[in-house]
Design brief:
Layout lengths: L9 H22 L1 H8 L5 H33 L6 H34 L3 H5 L3 H58 L2 H17 L1 H20 L5 E3 H19 L3 E6 L2 H4 L2 E3 L2 H12 L8 E9 L2 E7 L12 H14 L4 E4 L3 E7 L13
Parallel strand pairs: 2-4
Antiparallel strand pairs: 1-3, 4-5, 5-7, 6-7
Helix pairs in contact: 1-3, 1-6, 3-4, 4-6, 6-12, 7-8, 8-9
Length: 371
Amino acid sequence: MRFVEWKWTLGKKVSLVVAITFLAYGFFFMLFPEHVFDIHFRVKNAYALVLLDIATLSFSALLTWELNALFIQYLDKRLRWESRPLLRFFVQIKVTSILAYVIIASGMIINARLSFSVCPELLTIFSGLRTEMLEQRIFLFFLCILFIFHGVYFSGLFYRRWIISVLEAEGIKRENLHAQLHTLQNLVNPHFVFNSLNTLTAIIEDDQKVAVQYVQRLASFYRYLLQRQTEHLVLLDDELHFVESYIYLQKKRFGENMIVDIRLDEEVKKKFLPTYVLQILLENALKHNIISSAQPLKISISAKDADSIIVQNNLQRRTSIGQSTEKGLDNIRNRYHILGDENIQVLETSDSFSVTVPLFNERMYDDYSHN
């Protein structure tokens, strides 16, 4: 589904405002026919008065639109709908109404002055009805323009929010698919298969029992990938079991040169995080750092606080792979932003690299977990 946002260009605004003014003017003719006949059919320049009314009212409506739009943009930054919706509603209605009334009243007064200049005989025609009629016209056009403005604004607001919610749901599926592809493409490739077969061959020659365990862990690893491919959030505890299989497979390759320390209490393990996040972070650490007996890679996974965990490793960058594209980190950032507008924190020092990822207290977007 593609969302095409309606752009209110100046031409579209002017066209709408003029149309509204004509409609309001027509309603005014129907509501106050006696004034219309008294004024527009007893003066020489009746058509000039009509055009003057249309011009001044259209300009007042357009100015009202633009100033109210600027005020709403200011409110979007200072008083968002998501934070305090009721206060935002009343403040917006009150201030925009005052702005609309002041501008339209000023426009009508200017219109009256110009009308009297064009047709001096209006002064005698109006007599005692001039003030009453002016007030009626101001109030009528004020209501028409304000009703249309708020109708267009709130209709557009709710339509936009609905479209965004649909796009976010689609975005979750898309980013989750990207995560799956990222994981599978980096694991199911000739290098990974070659390394796994070499490791398995070496284990078989030394210990067939350990080789069976290796194959079982490898099968468990891929089973998890297939089972979780439609889920967006998983229990941290489940993700840790998956990561343990991944660590087991890699330690059979790197041995004691790879050290992983996981320190998480049971309460933290009951929280949720996006699928494959830990595996991607571990994979990045292995991919971008030197791993040898002289320079072992040390990775730790711990709770930074009650609502986040931190994955940290000592920094000893490999130069042979070139500059990192950070596709894994970008994938994680995008999914966190869509799921809860959360941000991951990446910190690099001269001797360490760490990524802090938030945790969720409950499973979100259940409706999309099995689509």
